[in-house]
Structures are given as C-alpha cells and as structure tokens.
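In response to the reviewer comment on reproducibility (Comment 2.3), we provide here a single inverse folding case reported in full, input and output, so that an independent group could reproduce the run without further information from us. The structure tokens appear first.
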C-alpha cells in the first residue's frame, strides 16, 4: 500500500500539460494546494501555457518528452522530491485535420511514426527512467494509456500499438516498485474531447460520445490514491466508473 496520499501537499510532475487532460490535471491539482511542474513542448507564449501560468502553484518548463536530454533538464528543475508523476503526453499517427485514410497502416510515413513513438513510448520510458529515482518513497505514478491500449482500435492501428506498449510496461514494472511503496497504474480512457482526436472521427461520432478532460482529471487524482499497482484501468464512458482490465494470469488477490 502506498504510504503517501495527500495530493494537496504534493509536488506533481505532469507531461502534456498545456492542453487536454494534462492541463485539466495540472489545474485540478493546483486548486487543492499541490505544487505542479508542468511540462509541454508548447512555448510559453501559447494559450495553454499562459493558462497554466495563471494557476496558483504551477511552474512551467518547455520539454520535448521524446528527448532524453530534455528529461535531464527536468531533473535539474526539480525543487524537491516529486510525490506524484502524471506521464500523459500523447499524439496519434497523423494530425487531427488529416483524413482518416492517413491514419491507416498502409499510409505509414516514417517521420510521423518516429514522432508518435517518441512521444507515446519514449516519453513514458524516459520519464520513468529519470524521475523514478527522484520520486519520494510512497509516491504514485499514473500513465495515460488508452482504451486503444487494451482493445483494438482500427481507426489508428499504430497508435493502438504504442498504447499497448505503455500498458505492457505498467503491468510489468508496477510490481517491482513495491519495495518503495510506489504505485504505478495506467488509465485507459475511451474518447476524450481533446486536440488529438481526428476531426473526421469526431464529426462522425454521436453527440456526447466524448468525455471531458476535466472529468478524466478527477479520475487521475483518484487513481493516485489507488492501493493496487501495475494495473490498467478502463474508463469507457463519463457516466460509468473505472474498472481494472487484468492481464492474463493477473488474478485478484
């Protein structure tokens, strides 16, 4: 069981913090009184970063999460041991204004593939590699995977692959952190109304299908307090609770 719980006394590091879920989590945590180190590739002049900087207790550092040297700069920017990590930055294989045909496997472009894997996979691996040694014992880590990380997602198969990788890492690494009472869990939400959703997919979806980042932020803060570790938590709809989707062989204790 984690020995550290109170988010209001915490020091959080959040990636993808200038938009979507990352922005909502940063603001929600700051409102509790927690301090937040917000990371994003956006520059300080962007609207999302300006909104972040207007919140109390939030510091911002521009960071390309796919660059290991950038993570070394994050370590240098820490003012104390973090208590919570939210590794959240993510993109899909094509920009949101691209037609859905460009999200298909046979439309693969190497530059897009390398960028997506850098953000979605390297961003988690490098974040864990550099920050786990700095994390306070009894701390908590939540990683944003996706419902596409535990189920098929034919709209963007390569995105699904990257999120399955994240889910596999969390399931495999979580148990090894028990000696430090650190929990590591993945939140796997369905569609969320954020900037990475393909415009064409959104326009073809029923009204109300997508959850809000603010609602998902509530789930993230709650998951920081979870006693379980190494689990993938599915969130399929805003009016339904999260639940664990267990890997084969992972039996409930």
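Designed residues, in position order:
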């Amino acid at each position: 069981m984690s020995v550290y719980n109170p988010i209001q006394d915490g020091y959080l590091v959040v990636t993808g913090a200038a938009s979507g879920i990352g922005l909502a989590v940063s603001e929600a945590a700051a409102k509790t009184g927690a301090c937040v180190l917000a990371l994003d590739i956006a520059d300080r002049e962007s609207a999302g970063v300006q909104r972040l900087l207007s919140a109390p207790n939030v510091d911002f550092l521009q960071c390309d999460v796919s660059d290991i040297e950038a993570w070394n700069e994050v370590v240098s920017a820490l003012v104390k041991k973090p208590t919570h990590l939210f590794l959240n930055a993510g993109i899909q294989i094509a920009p949101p204004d691209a037609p859905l045909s460009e999200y298909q496997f046979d439309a693969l472009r190497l530059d897009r593939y390398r960028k997506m894997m850098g953000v979605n996979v390297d961003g988690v691996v490098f974040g864990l590699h550099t920050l786990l040694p700095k994390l306070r014992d009894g701390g908590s880590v939540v990683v944003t995977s996706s419902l596409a990380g535990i189920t098929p997602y034919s709209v963007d198969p390569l995105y699904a692959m990257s999120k399955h990788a994240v889910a596999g890492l969390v399931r495999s690494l979580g148990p090894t952190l028990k000696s430090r009472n650190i929990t590591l869990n993945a939140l796997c939400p369905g569609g969320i109304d954020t900037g990475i959703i393909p415009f064409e997919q959104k326009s073809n979806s029923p009204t109300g299908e997508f959850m809000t980042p603010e609602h998902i932020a509530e789930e993230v803060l709650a998951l920081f307090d979870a006693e379980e570790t190494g689990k993938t938590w599915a969130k399929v709809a805003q009016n339904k609770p999260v639940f664990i989707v267990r890997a084969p062989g992972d039996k409930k204790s």
